[in-house]
Design brief:
The protein has about 220 residues and is of the alpha+beta class. The protein has four helices and 13 strands.
Length: about 220
C-alpha cells in the first residue's frame, strides 16, 4: 500500500565492513536501492525510519518515497533487511524501486474474525494454518490485510485461500486450496475417553480369567 512517507538517503562513497561500522556509529545503516531497470545505488539511511515502516500495519508492503540527495526521488518498498541477532537493531536494508504502473507480487497477512461454532458449541479448537497468502496486483491496490470470518465453522470445516474475494487488480497467486484456518476436535478429550473405556474393560477380563480357572478345578 502506498503511503505519503518520504525517507531521505545519502549516497555512500565507499563500501566494506569498516565503512559500515563507522556509518552505524553515526546513526545510519547501509542500504542498496535497485530495480526498475536502473543501476543499483549504495546509500545510507536512518534505521529509525526503516524500523517505523516495518512495524507499521502495512509493514514491508508499504510503498514510500525515497529521496536520494542529488540523484533521484523514487517510490520503493523494503525488499529485505538484516537485524543484529543479539541486539535486534537494524544492520542493513534492500530497497526495491517500484513502477506504479506495473503489477507486483506480494504476501499479505490473513487474520480471522469471530468465534467459530465448532469451538463455542462443540468444544473444538480453531487452528490457524496459513497466516498470509500471495497475490499479484497494482502497487496502489496492495491491501494491508485480509480478514476471514470463521463464525460458521464447525469441527471438520475450514476456510481456504480461494474463498477470499479478489478486488480491483488483485489475482490470487497462492494455491486456492491452501487451508487458512480449520476447526479440529480436541485430541485430549478423545484420549481420555479411550483411557476410560480401557479401564472399564480391564476388570471384566480379570473376572473371566478367574472364572475359567475355577471351572478347570
Amino acid at each position: 500500500m502506498r503511503k505519503d512517507i518520504t525517507v531521505t538517503a545519502e549516497l555512500r562513497g565507499s563500501r566494506g565492513k569498516n565503512e559500515a561500522r563507522r556509518m552505524r556509529v553515526s546513526g545510519k545503516i547501509p542500504a542498496v536501492v535497485y530495480g526498475a531497470s536502473r543501476q543499483p545505488v549504495a546509500v545510507a539511511v536512518n534505521p529509525k525510519d526503516v524500523h517505523r515502516i516495518l512495524t507499521s500495519k502495512s509493514g514491508h508492503n508499504t510503498i514510500f518515497n525515497l529521496q536520494i540527495d542529488g540523484v533521484e526521488t523514487t517510490p520503493v518498498m523494503i525488499a529485505d533487511w538484516q537485524h543484529d541477532p543479539i541486539r535486534s537493531n537494524l544492520l542493513h536494508a534492500d530497497l526495491k524501486r517500484i513502477d506504479l504502473n506495473q503489477r507486483i507480487t506480494v504476501k499479505v497477512p490473513v487474520h480471522t474474525r469471530g468465534e467459530a461454532r465448532g469451538v463455542k458449541q462443540q468444544g473444538g479448537l480453531l487452528e490457524l494454518v496459513a497466516r498470509e497468502i500471495e497475490i499479484e496486483c497494482l502497487p496502489d491496490e496492495i491491501p494491508e490485510e485480509f480478514v476471514v470470518d470463521v463464525t460458521e465453522l464447525l469441527i471438520g470445516q475450514n476456510k481456504r485461500a480461494g474463498e477470499i474475494p479478489m478486488l480491483g487488480s488483485m489475482t490470487l497467486v497462492s494455491n486456492p486450496d491452501t487451508v487458512l484456518a480449520h476447526v479440529v476436535a480436541l485430541r485430549t478429550s478423545t484420549t481420555a475417553e479411550e483411557t476410560t473405556e480401557a479401564a472399564a474393560a480391564e476388570p471384566e477380563v480379570v473376572k473371566k480369567g478367574k472364572q475359567t480357572e475355577e471351572e478347570e478345578e
